[in-house]
Amino acid sequence: MTLHNAVTECPFEIGNTPLTPFALTLNGLRHELLVKEERCNAFGSVKDRVAWYILSQTIAEKGPVEAVVDASSGNYGYALACICQKLGIAATIVSSSSISAYNAAGIRQAGARLVIAEPAPGECANAARMRVAGEISAAEGQTFLNQYANFMNPASHEHWTAPEVFAEGPFDACFVTSSSGGTARGFTDYLHSHREDAGHLILVEPAASGAFVPPGEEAASAKLQVPGYGSKRRSSFAEVDPEPEMLRVDEADVVATFTLLHERELVKVGLSSAGVLTGAMTWLAEQTEPMRVVCVCADGEERYLEEMESRYIPAVGEAQVSAARAALGPVIATMQRL
């Protein structure tokens, strides 16, 4: 199976997700903001693309596999578990205690084994997941897909997600979450190879995240607040020249944006997607002429709603979220679907 037909021969309803247009007014300027709704993939997130791409390429290269193991903070594991269930492949997903209840339940319901990795002293959660997945592979003979270091991860976006998005361009800016680095690297590679004139690519991540810190630099010492959002480990895909443009967002702002979008029934995106939209609004507030921008939104609100009041708001502080809502509410109130 080639890179190209991994896309065209996908047996699931993955890809061709909606690009929903909105108008947003800031400082008297009316901007067009387009939302790429990856929640509409078959298993609910942009990670559907990654899971199918890596698994299908592994099978093409090695032949049929009976069992796979991989590390995931949640969405990828959910997608991989569902795809493996459909294909009759046993799956083990190694995650962290930060995994959402929604994703944990979905992984188990798909028949996969869910293992929670406990970090060793000085080890971040991401590194712990990778270590434990490797140990399970070595001990049990399962195929380790290794999404965090497998360049089929960014390739899925370079050859699939990014071409879909930029076919609807041009855009003045494109906003994606840095996350584990696959989406950001894939979009960067696509633009360098195909569309250098397509506008700014801006990576959005929480202030304390370190997925794309420059080589030799440490991530901010502050603790990540929102469970499952951001990474304290520099991405395996972060070697990009030139260094990507980065926009840091406050996690209270992200949670506030999520709640405001949900209450106003504007768009049903998840937490990292609310972060991307927060970053876009921050950038647009600094512009001096109308802009057309696109936000790649990784998943949907359903993965977070059940735990919003009990987990995510307390993680950043109710007072902080309340203050952020007061500041962001008037901006989001101008947001209208076109």
Summed over residues and divided by their number, the pLDDT gives a mean of 92
- The string of secondary-structure elements, in order, is HEEHEHEHEHEHEHEEHHEHHE
What fold name stands as the CATH topology of the largest domain?
Answer: Rossmann fold
Distance between the termini: 40 Å
- How much helical structure, as a percent, in the residues? 40-55%
Q: Shape, please?
A: globular
Count, helices: 11
Rg calculated over all Cα atoms: 19 Å
Quickly give the structural class: alpha/beta
Judging by the overall fold, what is the CATH architecture of the largest domain? Answer: 3-Layer(aba) Sandwich
Q: Roughly what fraction of the amino acids lie in strands? A: 15-25%
Order of strands across the main sheet: 9-8-7-10-2-1-11
- How does the major sheet shape up? 7 strands, mixed
Runs in which pLDDT lies below 50 for 5 or more consecutive residues are none
CATH class group of the largest domain: Alpha Beta
**How many domains is the backbone divided into?**
2
The counted number of beta strands is 11
Task: Write a structural description.
There is one protein chain. By secondary structure, this protein is of the alpha/beta class. The protein has two domains: 226 residues, Rossmann fold, CATH 3.40.50; 98 residues, Rossmann fold, CATH 3.40.50.1100. Helices cover 41% and strands 17% of the residues. It has eleven helices and eleven strands. The strands form two sheets. Strands 9-8-7-10-2-1-11 form a seven-stranded mixed β-sheet, with helices on both faces. The protein has a four-stranded parallel β-sheet with strand order 5-4-3-6, with helices on both faces. The longest helix is centred in the first third of the chain and has 16 residues. The radius of gyration is 19 Å and the shape is globular.
